[in-house]
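Key idea: predict the complex, not the pieces.
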Amino acid sequence: MKEELIIAGFGGQGVLSMGKILAYSGIMQDQEVSWMPSYGPEMRGGTANVTVILSDERISSPILQEFDTAIILNQQSLDKFEHSVKPGGVLLYDPNGITHTPTRKDISVYKIAATEEAAKMGNAKVFNMIVLGSYLKIKPLVKLENVVKGLQKSLPERTHKLIPMNEQAILRGMEIVEKCA
Amino acid sequence: MTVEEIIKPENLTYKKSPLLTDAPMHYCPGCSHGTVHKILAEVLEDLNAQENSIGITPVGCSVLLYNYIDIDWIEAAHGRAPAVATAAKRLYPNKHIFAYQGDGDLAAIGTGEIIHTCNRGDNVTIIFINNGIYGMTGGQMAPTTLLGMPTATTPYGRDPKLNGYPFKVSEIMAQLPGTGYVTRQAVHTPGAVRQARKALKKAFEKAYAGKGTSFIEIVATCSSGWKLSPVDSNKWMTENMFPFYPLGDLKDVE
Amino acid sequence: MRELRLMKGNEVIAEAAIRSGCDAYFGYPITPQSEVMETLMELRPWEATGMVVLQAESETASINMVYGGASCGKRCMTSSSSPGISLMAEGISYLAGAELPALIVNVSRGGPGLGTIQPSQADYFQATKGGGHGDYHLIVLAPAAVQEMHDFVFLGFDLAFKYRNPVMILADGVIGQMMEKVELAPQRPRWTDEEVVQLNGSWAVTGKKNRDRHIITSVELDSLKFENFNKKLVEKYAKVREQEVRYEETLCDDAEYLIVAYGTSARIGQKAMELLRTEGIKAGLFRPITLYPFPEKELAARSKQLKGILTVELSAGQMIEDVKLSVGHQLHVEHYGRMGGMIYTPNEITDAFKKMINR
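Result:
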């Protein structure tokens, strides 16, 4: 198994922490992982993206041009990364703020209304966990129990009481993800 | 009475500190370094610190200080002795750590290190030799050169428009909360030497006791650089240096 | 039980420093490696192991604090990024000149000048050919994974004390900022003061007790004596070249062409090699792990079967000089690089590779 994934959106959407939780979940089931963010001034209020690789074997390049999956959380990132999905790959996006929807026909496109759902749940912070849930529904690469372990590892102790809420958000994301025609 | 009869322990009135080595000093006649080295060796002996001290030598005339006093030494890069001393003290908090620096090393190239060491209050002793000139490189202007004073790079005398003003280092160090003891001394008369020795011992004791950085400035002569005889150097220093760099304690925190 | 963590390269430097029994870290913040000191300050190792962590007023002060601490016979280190390492160059030369062991980490960024905070490998010359003045060499380790950032802290200290010579870990912004799985070593106790005397007491300043005084210095005004000292260093470096070469070969046995790359570029280059192999091109990867000593004999031996080499560096081409010196002028050696903080993708490398083959 090898999954090459990019998560891209605005800074503050939890892009990096979502990647981190996924990477930690991979470690919990004995996979090799890498997490490579964009960094520096471009992260100050602008776009943020992170490349996450999960693999059963040693990982070569942490920097990639093509991805098995792209998780896209704003229009700029869609414009930038739609063409980086490998033919036959997956593009998952949140329609919030998207004016030009994906056009490629050689990939599977999924939609997750995570911004809307997080607002309904009354907690904007679980947004990225809803997205993570929808991704895991499409690609069940890590078990939910290992995601919970990943959350325990990557969140500070004082926030561990919030883990059940995050778990709920993941399950909700799994429920509401839609495949686009 | 024969010579043998005279040379007896009970007749001993003065002796060289055993911490001073037998290496002949390389300093010019009339230079203050030798006297300061002597009282430094005596103070280390008084404090029983030979086995428990590390000295840091500078770049400048006193670079070879390690040849003259029988303790462990580190020779630092130009101006960096206080940083070296900081590390040694943090790693050996129960040792006497001191740096010995001239006015080029401490007050020009090493200004950053001395200010921040004193401002952190690292419990080290800094011995600052201020003779208002660069001795080793051949008598060029120092930050502490007096106005009007001729040097190799101020042949017509130091002009503030061209060269700025003489730098009162001890006054600045006394302002910093990290210093516990700041004093200015000289070694031009037997009385001054006794006083400087007392101050130096106090500086070591206070730093060792964790009272912050001890900073002891010695206003010193440089007969070669000043182009004066040793006797005239002392006279010139008394008349010109002391009014601008007055002797005495600037700060003594209990 | 193995202790596995997901960590950034910079964070793992801090964690490994503590676990390696490091006595002191002195540093000054600079992007992209400020997490090293931030992590140390958060972990407060002075409570657990007694390790000193101090934010100095400059890189100049940092390296001279390392000099002071190393003189004391203790395990001391600093970390910085390219412009900061330039400021430290004087102190590094003094460390080499006084034969002091120390660990210096460069998480390099693009230059010259203030340059960019994005990743780069343009400090190869500085790290391997000098940087400071005088006839000296650093032992230079180039990690290509976060795990190696961890392992090379231990190795770096061990080599530094074995040869009484400063060691540099030459990383870059990618390795510093990326997270990977790391297996952490158990805590190695710091040396006690008695152990420092026992192990390093033949040269370190520990207080003159029951022996002649020790003087840590790099000055010697007698030219003949200093030439003899220079000769001693030359012998030391010859021994280092003989004993400490480290490198890694991947799919080289049947290779007709090689990618030679270190650090991050070796990772990206490996992916490029995998892509080339799927197209039936017999490409291999040769990764120097020690940049000094450079694996020249090993690369020369491998070159006999080759038709060409592509060196891949995030620079205008620096390591390529050592590659050419190793394989001689009979073999075609070509450089492919990006600069200014730009990073190539594996596909860019495969394109450059195919151009080379077709030339």
